[in-house]
Structure formats: C-alpha cells, structure tokens
C-alpha cells in the first residue's frame, strides 16, 4: 500500500460524504467491478442448473410428490442460493478495487488457486454467523484485505464502526431496496406490455413438465444484483478508507512527505525576494485618491417607449401565446388507427397462443437447444472480457509453512530486504552519527531490527502495517525476551521521523545492541 499513489484526496470526511465518494469510485471502475461480480455468479448459476437438470434426467419417473414439488420450484431455490453467496461474490470486486485505488499496476495473471484462497478464507463464518451482518460492506475489507479472523477481527470491526454511525446499516437497506425495486419494476413492465391474459395463463409456452424457461426468469434478478453490487462494495470500502484516514492520519503523513520533498537549503536570493514582496504589499494597501464615478440611468425617447410597448403587446397575443384548457389525458401524437400489419401480426400471435391441438414439443426442443448454445457463447465472451480486465491484477502471495503470507520486502516506504541493508551496518550507523545524520542512523537501526524480526523470527506482519501495528505484532510473540526495548526504539524512531525530535544517541545505541544480541546472537 503506497499512500503517495492514492487515487483520492486523503482527508477526513463525514460518513455521508464518504458514501458519496464511494458512488463516484464505483462509476469510475464500474464495468470491471460489475463483471468481477457477475461472472462468478453466472458460473455458480450454470453449475446449479446443470446439477438440477442432471437430477431430473436421472431420477426415476414418476417422481414422488415431495421431490416433484421441489423440482417445480427449483428456480427460486437457485436464486436464494446465489443471494446467500453474496458475501463471497463481493470479495473479488473489492480485491480489484483496492488495487485500483492505490494505482497498483503489477503485471501477471490472477491464478485460479489465488482466487480459490480468496473465496475460501473464513468462508464458513461469512455464510453462517455473519451472513445477516447489517454493516457487511464496512467489515468486508477487514476479512479480504487485512485477512483477520477471530478476536482480532472483532476488535478491528468495533474500532471501524465507532466513527461511522448508522451509515453502514443505511447503505445495506438502500441497496437492498434498489434491487427489489428493479425486480418489481421489471415485473410490472412485462405485465403492462403483455396484458392480463399473459398473467392468467403463464404456461402458454410450456408443455407438461417442461420448465426450462423458468430457469431463465431468474437471470434478470442476478443481473440486478450485479448492477447494484459495485456501488455497495465501493461505498463500504470508502467508509473503511475514511476511518483509516481518521485513525492513522494519512492526510498528515502525506503533508509531511510533501513538505520534506519541497524543503530546500536556504539561498541568498530569499532575503531579496522577501523585501520585494513586502514593497509590493505596501503599494497594494496604499489608498489612491481617485474621484468616484457616478453612473447615470439610460434615458429612452418617446418613440423607443412606444415601440417596446407594441412589441410586448404582439408577443402576448396569438400565435405567440396559445392558451388551451385540457381536462383529459391524451397521447402527444395519437394515431388514428392501428397499423394493419401490426394488427395482423397480433392476431396471428393470439391464434397461435390459443391453439391446443398442435404438438410443438419438437419446436420447443430446438428453441431450448438454441438458448443453451447462446448462453454458452455469451459466457465465453464475458469470460474473455473479464480476463482482459484482470491481466494487470496482482497475484495473491502464496502462504508459507507457518500459514502466513510471504514476508513483505517494503513497509512504510522503507525497504527491509537483505539486499537493501549494507554489509557493515554497525560501521555505517556510527558514520551517520558522526556526521550528524541522525535520521539515517535511526533508519538503519530500525530497518535492521525489523528485518531480523520479520525474516528470521517470522513475526506475522502485513505490508500496510504502521510502526505501532508492527509493535503490537511483536508483543504477541511472547517468547521473544525483548524487555520493552523494541517498543522504546519504535517510540524514538516515530518521534524523529514525524516530530523531528532528536533521540539520545547513547540510549538508542544501547537499545539497538540489546535487540541485536537477542535477535541475532
């Protein structure tokens, strides 16, 4: 996580402003987020449909009454299963959005094993105990990005909720209402276009137990979920980022970095520039004696006044102004009669619907086959589109033998790998202290101790951890007899890095040698 590449302005916002920002974020990367949610949902849908279709083909006919009823309502069960899996389907869009926000353009393919680890992590609790979490969008980054579980996840979620108020809950209710409104609106639109006869006789295209078209009826509901999901995920992630900016002072850190970058040594031209600016300000504030200007009202002649009145009278009479009272609804361009060609087509369609003697089973079989072929081609095209969007997505790191991710190489903008540290580090530290470069000396000491803790003693940390979070992670390894030396060294480093307070040289060297004796004997 590189704060300098953050694609939004780091400042503390209210919860409602964070939700507005989430809507703009979703609009920025809407297509990628929607496809990242829709394609896994379609894969689950096709697997469930194939399983139910195979069950219907292999079952002994006729089916028992209970199984027959379950088979008839199975499309609703499909929709319920996909709705229940929404906490898992939201993970891939959130993962992609986190890399888009921090402008992470790492190259490589997103391997299927990495996707499996993404969906498998803490999946059981997400689908059981925490399924009806009203603030799921706010808590989702803790599971997906921070990969916390158990008591650590609970404490982290409580800390994030403390400053968000009811915004996370209202977000869930509003997005759920929008999904319901879209589904209800589509149903009302179809009934309005097809008429009441279609509603009374819904099986005009089905023969016997053929319910293949019922499985297609839930596809619009899945599409509506995919349309709303980017806004729900982005708004929740915006609330999460807003709380982290507030808790960790990202805005102040970026200001300090920018100030340090712009800071330059004093030059001889600055006194002259200050004097010139002072003289310029003195000239600007000196009052000048200028005679006030008096504005005069324009005077119109008699002929101009008469002409203006005549023009106004003409514009207020027909044909420029037409007043007409209408007491009933009418079409803007109402046709006199229905086109004969359209009328004949509707009559033939009604005759076809009313026929009961014709056997259309073969026709329906051909239509069903064409629909399955079309769905397969559509899924292939959408998969190719998603692959093109995921080419720049970074691959998730592979867990090591201890169950944590690979040790990070860069933390807090500092390289902590073995290659980044000098060979004779003690001599370099003494040289930095001798020439008065305390920041360089403290940086070498802090990076060296952090390297020993992470790469040799396997302290579990994440690349986005701050200094205080690293100190908390070290405290959890109680088997290391550090005696508070690491906490004190961290405190001195934070005071020097952010408050520019020089630490006592003898004390920090003593702490460094004590830590080095324990960690690298």
TrEMBL record:
Residue ranges of the TM segments: 29-53, 65-85, 181-202, 222-241, 271-290, 362-383
Alphabetically ordered keywords of this record: Membrane, Transmembrane, Transmembrane helix
Superkingdom, taxonomy of origin: Bacteria
Species of origin: Terasakiispira papahanaumokuakeensis
Record-given protein name: DUF4129 domain-containing protein
């Amino acid at each position: 996580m590189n704060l300098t590449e953050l694609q939004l302005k780091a400042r503390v916002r209210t919860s409602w402003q964070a939700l507005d920002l989430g809507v703009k974020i979703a609009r920025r990367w809407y297509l990628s987020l929607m496809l990242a949610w829709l394609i896994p949902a379609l894969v689950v849908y096709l697997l469930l449909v194939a399983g139910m279709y195979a069950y219907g083909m292999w079952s002994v006919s006729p089916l028992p009454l209970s199984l027959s009823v379950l088979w008839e309502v199975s499309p609703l069960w499909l929709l319920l299963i996909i709705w229940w899996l929404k906490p898992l389907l939201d993970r891939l869009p959130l993962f992609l959005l986190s890399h888009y926000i921090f402008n992470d353009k790492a190259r490589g393919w997103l391997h299927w094993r990495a996707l499996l680890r993404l969906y498998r992590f803490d999946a059981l609790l997400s689908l059981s105990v925490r399924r009806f979490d009203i603030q799921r969008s706010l808590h989702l980054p803790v599971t997906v990005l921070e990969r916390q579980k158990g008591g650590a996840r609970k404490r982290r979620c409580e800390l994030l909720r403390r400053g968000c108020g009811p915004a996370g809950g209202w977000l869930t209710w509003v997005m759920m209402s929008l999904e319901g409104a879209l589904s209800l609106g589509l149903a009302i639109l179809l009934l309005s276009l097809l008429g009441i006869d279609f509603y009374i006789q819904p099986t005009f295209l089905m023969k016997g137990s053929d319910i293949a078209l019922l499985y297609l009826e839930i596809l619009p509901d899945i599409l509506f979920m995919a349309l709303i999901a980017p806004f729900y995920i982005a708004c929740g992630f915006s609330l999460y980022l807003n709380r982290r900016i507030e808790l960790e002072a990202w805005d102040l850190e970026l200001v300090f970095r920018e100030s340090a970058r712009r800071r330059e040594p004093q030059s001889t031209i600055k006194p002259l520039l200050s004097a010139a600016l002072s003289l310029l300000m003195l000239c600007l504030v000196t009052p000048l004696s200028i005679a006030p200007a008096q504005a005069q009202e324009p005077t119109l002649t008699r002929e101009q006044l008469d002409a203006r009145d005549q023009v106004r009278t003409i514009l207020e009479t027909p044909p420029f102004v037409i007043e007409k009272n209408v007491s009933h609804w009418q079409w803007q361009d109402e046709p006199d009669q229905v086109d004969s060609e359209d009328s004949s087509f509707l009559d033939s369609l009604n005759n076809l619907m009313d026929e009961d003697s014709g056997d259309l089973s073969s026709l329906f079989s051909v239509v069903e086959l064409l629909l399955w072929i079309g769905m397969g081609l559509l899924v292939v095209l959408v998969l190719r589109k998603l692959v093109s969007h995921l080419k720049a997505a970074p691959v998730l790191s592979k867990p090591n033998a201890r169950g944590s991710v690979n040790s990070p190489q860069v933390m807090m903008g500092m390289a902590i790998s073995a290659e980044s540290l000098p060979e004779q580090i003690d001599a370099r530290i003494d040289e930095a202290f001798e020439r008065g470069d305390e920041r360089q000396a403290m940086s070498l000491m802090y990076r060296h101790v952090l390297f020993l803790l992470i790469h040799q003693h396997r302290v579990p940390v994440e690349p986005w951890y701050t200094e205080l979070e690293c100190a908390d992670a070290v405290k959890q390894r109680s088997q290391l007899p550090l005696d508070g030396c690491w906490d004190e060294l961290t405190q001195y480093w934070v005071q020097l890095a952010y408050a520019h307070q020089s630490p006592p040289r003898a004390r920090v060297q003593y702490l460094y040698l004590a830590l080095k004796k324990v960690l690298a004997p």
